[in-house]
Amino acid sequence: RGPGATPSSPGYLYVRRQEPLYSMSIRRCLALFMTALLLSWNAPSTAQEVLLSSVRLAMGQDRQKALESLRRELIVSEIAGTVDQWMLSKRQGTKFVPVGMIRFENRRLVWVSRLWGEYQDLFEGMSSVHAATQNAIAASGPALRMNARTQTTPEVTVKTLEFKFSDVTIQAILVDSRDSGRRTMTVTEIYGD
Description:
The chain has 193 residues and is of the alpha+beta class. It has helices spanning 26-38, 63-71, 122-140, and strands at 14-15, 19-20, 49-52, 55-58, 75-78, 85-92, 95-105, 108-119, 145-152, 156-164, 168-177, 183-192. 21% of the residues lie in helices and 44% in strands. The strands form three sheets. An eight-stranded antiparallel β-sheet has the order 5-6-7-8-12-11-10-9, covered by helices on one side.
């Protein structure tokens, strides 16, 4: 929807009862997402390989080789207080944007978390969940398990959706902050334990 769009403009998306898309309930979003997922399918790839930015990593890859290839494209910082866990980011103008995290055990890559993004627009967030889940289905086959949970405090409500595949977990976290009125959605793709 472009500037000046009105509810009667073409491309203005509404759901039942004339609710704007961003106010849809988690159930409606999930139904929309699952429908879109069933209508599309990607060619299979291997779940043992993960693409972070333009760097391809292999689960079980040697620590030194993985870190060398990542440092060519990304900022790699060891996370203080952890055992061989690293934060990956890239510079975007004057900001550092997180890309993901990795962890090694016995000098081998055992865990990768790829951040798909943080969104204030629910449609963009659900599109990211859709893309991450398509990627996981292509890599691992159909989902084995799905979890949905809600945590509520007086200040914030956090809704988490997890799609667990044999080798990959897709996690979407919706945060509704009552104090600031800010709503965000973070999408992450996790390989390994």
